[in-house]
Design a protein that fits this description.
The complex is a heterodimer of chains A (about 450) and B (about 90).
Chain A lengths: L3 H8 L6 H6 L4 E5 L11 E5 L2 E7 L5 E5 L13 E2 L4 E2 L6 E2 L5 E3 L8 H4 L7 E4 L2 E4 L23 E8 L3 H8 L5 H4 L1 H7 L5 E2 L2 E2 L28 E7 L2 E9 L5 E10 L3 E3 L6 E8 L2 E9 L38 H5 L11 H11 L16 H18 L19 E6 L18 H7 L1
Antiparallel strand pairs in A: 1-10, 2-3, 3-4, 5-6, 6-7, 7-8, 9-10, 11-19, 12-13, 14-15, 15-16, 16-17, 16-20, 17-18, 18-19
Chain B lengths: L10 H17 L3 E7 L1 H10 L1 H5 L5 E2 L2 E5 L9 E5 L8
Parallel strand pairs in B: 1-3
Antiparallel strand pairs in B: 1-4, 2-3
Classes of the chains: A alpha+beta (about 450), B alpha+beta (about 90).
Chain lengths: ~450, ~90
């Protein structure tokens, strides 16, 4: 639990808030590159950390990320024309380059004004199908996080964005919350692998129900070899934040089922047994973007734009295409729940199940009222790192987890069955800055 | 460590430290029955949960009953544990 003051400091993300100042010290995913495919294509509006921006790709293919409203009279540049190496405001024709330089002021010809000031602009990097921006003070950019999945060719990276109408912390906490996986996602486990079939006194009756969802590649027969829903959590700090292991009694006597998740401050989680990341970015205090990024087989045509990541999700609920990314929760199938065909009653897989419970907490959850348990340790530690970072930034220092000198391509999660007491850290040596043993990690993910 | 006022108390630290101590105790095969916390922490939890106080429920943190103890540092809660083997240990 948190005090009211702590909860406010954790959740509010605007430019004049404690957390807003912390988040602006990291590279922040802003939008999918697929939304600005061609030079001089239509610009897009981006809402990020409580502010509005315009993003565009100029004639030479460079990305620009500017304050949305024209500095002249405040018309939206999202309405503007992208042409001849800049974006032009429709209202009076002021034109800006990708770095905010004023190129033309047609209603104020011959002025030196344009040589003295600029439209607000921010550094942009392209990586892993996403545009990443830096909204912090100029000159304070940390090292860019080059993740392993982002190094693949563009057609081998699948990215999608789901917009959720709740505060980002509710979603971020879900991404590092291992103990809900064998419970909330029982329907998914039943469909995709040899997972558990019970939660307490609940047992499935009949065949798996949510059969339309995308089945992840089988994890070399690993499945979900445990019936233990009360994992022990072990957390260890890393250069990028922390990683933790959820340790469950395995089905096989004397063994434990280990799921390791790496949390890269402040947005990204590498989930056990997946090839990519879950990235949660606040749009504002009351909505956030949930990005899924993963490597896909070569030749998976169109998946880099998010196609294929919506299997099993009704298009009236959500879709990866622009204009359909804000989630509208489907109705819960109470009949399927009552008859034992479904545990959660939400079709569409993990993201829909997660979103349903996270949004049900309210727009901004009041953490004074919660009753945490030890299995929530990773969430507890994340809050501490974030609030410690607030304090550091307030003292004029750098926030935690910037990873200076660390090679982010070494970050990974993992899942494995190990002997009880075995060192789980050996599965993810790169997380601690040691040379990665990629082969070992690949074998167990 | 100086005692913080209610508005600057960081429960995020208290909870993190308490959770770590519970896992440490479990590692030692001990049964944790309660948490001793500084009275400032106890009051902060009570203030956050007026409904539970009104109903006469015990104040709980991480599933353990809270015991106020002036001898406990604000950010160093301690576990009350017995040496029995913990049931259902992971």
């Amino acid at each position: 639990m948190l005090t009211e003051e702590e909860n406010e400091r954790l959740c509010r993300v605007g430019p004049d808030t404690p957390m807003g100042r912390v988040l602006r010290r990291y590279w922040t995913p802003a939008f999918q590159l697929g939304d600005l495919r061609e030079p001089d294509c239509a610009p897009i509006q981006v809402t990020l950390l409580g502010e509005n921006f315009v993003a565009f790709r100029d004639t030479s293919g460079r990305l620009g990320f500017l304050d949305e409203l024209c500095m002249h009279r405040g018309a939206s540049l999202v309405l503007g024309r992208v042409e001849d190496c800049g974006i032009r405001c429709l209202y009076h024709g002021w034109k800006y380059a990708v770095d905010g330089t004023i190129l033309e002021t047609p209603n104020f010809p011959g002025s030196t004004f344009k040589d003295r000031v600029k439209q607000g602009s921010y550094p942009v990097r392209e990586s892993g199908g996403l545009a990443w921006v830096y909204l912090g003070p100029p000159g304070t950019e940390p090292p860019f996080p080059h993740f392993r999945w982002a190094a693949a060719p563009p057609d081998e990276i699948a990215v999608s964005e789901m917009i959720l109408d709740c505060n980002w912390m509710q979603v971020q906490e879900g991404s590092i919350d291992s103990s809900h996986v064998g419970i909330l996602h029982l329907d998914t486990l039943a469909v995709t692998d040899a997972g558990p079939r019970t939660v307490g006194s609940f047992e499935f009756a009949g065949q798996p129900w949510d059969t339309g969802i995308s089945a992840p590649p089988r994890r070399l027969g690993l499945g979900w070899p445990s019936q233990d829903n009360g994992p022990k959590i072990e957390v260890e700090h890393t250069p990028f934040g922390f990683h933790y292991a959820a340790l469950r009694d395995a089905t096989e006597p004397g063994k434990q089922y280990v799921r390791i998740t790496a949390f890269v401050m402040p947005y990204t989680a590498f989930i056990a047994g997946t090839t990519g990341s879950v990235i949660v970015v606040p749009r504002d205090d009351t909505s956030c973007s949930l990005y899924l990024a993963a490597n896909v087989p070569s030749g998976a045509n169109g998946r880099a734009a998010g196609g294929g990541m919506n299997r099993g999700i009704d298009p009236s609920v959500w879709g990866p295409e622009r204009g359909n990314r804000r989630l509208r929760l489907p109705a819960q199938d109470r009949e399927a729940m009552a008859t034992g065909r479904s545990f959660a009653g939400f079709r569409g897989g993990n993201r829909i199940q997660d979103a349903a419970v996270q949004m049900s907490e309210g727009i901004i959850y009041d953490r004074r009222k919660e009753h945490l348990v030890p299995a929530d340790l990773a969430i507890i530690r994340m809050r501490r790192l974030l609030t410690d970072s607030i304090k550091l930034v307030e003292e004029g220092k750098k926030p935690l987890g910037l990873g200076e000198g660390y090679d982010f391509s070494n970050v990974s999660g993992a899942a494995a069955v190990m002997d009880v007491g075995a060192r789980w850290q050996d599965l993810v040596p790169g997380n601690l800055g040691e040379p990665a043993r990629a082969t070992l990690v690949d074998e167990v993910t | 460590m100086n005692e913080p006022d209610a508005s600057s108390l960081r429960l995020a630290i208290v909870v993190d430290e308490a959770c770590t101590r519970i896992f440490d105790a479990w590692e030692e095969r001990a049964r944790v029955t309660a948490l001793r916390v500084n009275p400032a922490v106890y009051e902060a939890v009570a203030a956050a949960r007026p409904g539970e106080v009104r109903r006469g429920y015990p104040l709980m943190l991480l599933g353990m009953e809270l015991v106020p103890d002036e001898g406990v540092d604000t950010y160093q809660p301690t576990v009350v544990a017995s040496r029995e083997a913990k049931e259902g240990a992971c």
